[in-house]
Write a structure and sequence with these properties.
There is one protein chain. The chain contains eleven helices and seven strands. The protein has a seven-stranded parallel beta sheet, with helices on both faces. The two termini are about 30 Å apart.
Amino acid sequence: MTFKTFFAAATRHVPYDYQQRLAGGDAGRPCESQLINVPTGLGKTAAVVLAWLWNRVAPSLNSQLSTINQTWPRRLVYCLPMRTLVEQTQDNVAEWLERLAKAHPDNAELNWLAEHSPIVLMGGEELERAKRDWDLYPERPCLLIGTQDMLLSRALNRGYGMSRYRWPMHFGLLNNDALWVLDETQLMGVGLETSAQLDGFRHKAGDSVVGACPTWWMSATLDADRLATVDHIRPDNGWPVLQLEDADRKQPEVRTRL
């Protein structure tokens, strides 16, 4: 099992070079906060979702990944600014999970995810029972997709559209052992600064945060200056950035899409 075959099983096409770099290729990579600045139409959603699945869920298919994957969070929290983007992402992710589960019927975590994820959190959305109780299984892998109001409010211990007695459950689950992906950040308004401040809080908390809890900010037009907050200070050399390199731009399909 290689990352190329894993990616192709989900999407029906081979990954671009930048998608392989994000996942760490066949050997995987540590999961750290970063910026992803890639033009529209080049598969950023597939890049982040399958990078997480490859490093978190696929190690049972590839022994090289067994040590790397322990640093990758148990939950993927995919945050978007609008309902229409959530619905589109939900359809894509559900299709990828279904294909991967069919390709690897003996993989317990992939089959669990195909049945119980993605969990969609947005106003007026009524989840089926298998997905409604996701917070009762904190030990299981979980893929959440939602609007920024629903997800950021939970991370701030004030979850919209839920009983206040359950606020601490979602607060705990979304601030521990979770990879936050904020997509289309240029449309998020002050939600972008909020996410940066939350990332700063988690890093300052140190050992009191269980598991890694990094953030990936993703956009074709990323304004990195807005990520500098009181507790999320810009490093001297700037934050790590994944972007297209010259070799990427020379690939025929990338050139066509650009």
